[in-house]
Design a protein that fits this description.
The chain is about 45% helix and about 15% strand. Strands 1, 2, 3, 4, 5, 6, 7, 8, 9, 10 and 11 form an eleven-stranded mixed sheet that branches.
Amino acid sequence: MEHLIRMSEEVAAALAEERPVVALETTLVAHGFPAPTGIEVGLASEAAVRAAGGVPATIGILDGRIVVGLTAGELERFTPDARKLGSRDLAVCAVQGAVGATTVGGTLAAAAAVGIRFMGTGGLGGVHRGFPTPPDVSADLGACARIAAVVASSGVKSLLDVPATMELLETLGVPVLGYRVDTLPLFYAAAGGPPVSARVEDAGEVARVADAHWRLGGNAILVGRAPDESLDVAGPIEEIVAEAATRGIVGQAVTPYVLSALHERSGGETRRVNRDLIVANAGLAAEIAVAFAAL
């Protein structure tokens, strides 16, 4: 697959030596924050992975190839004009030579192709509010259903129908582990989510669960880590999601719209919390990867 995938020398060496590698997405760089904040968050996430003993592998598509291990200079090419890529979009984007920023699902698919099993992100996509009108379910869930990986996040994006998403994750056989919590974090908020399938106390316990789960033929594991600072934004989210529906904003455009409006109405508080939780989740993913490598 050399014509399709390009790995950095650092990532390739780490995989060859079976050292811990953590995949990171590029959608947050291109669409999650205004420039240059997205690049800063991406680089801070990489630094958190390194601080925990892992090797970061930020993934995106450039010049007709899936790049696993982007440089700081390459990250600058991921502007809001970049395509937003789920797993279905990787091949098309590469063949057409477009710049493509990977979502959770797209990142998991690309990472799995080279043998990376750990990922840090902000929040998982899921069932959109109002389902089945529109019939919108994130492709992140499909990727989790078929790919053996650990995804460290702050739960499910709070603009979604979180209880319905949890039900679907159960149907798909995806364990949802609460990292030192009994309920699933709601992205910005630490409490208020549905009960997790099990609570875990440290990275080593997650690594042992992952090892057993995969030996039994299991798929992805979602680890929900509560944000260090919690914000109650349930009311504004309800209002903004309704506004998006009124304006005909649907599909992949909903999340960027809601996040941007939330940042504006909170005076930047949600952006700060968002940044911090993304970086913290990257560090947790690395801790889990390091613990798994030591098994």
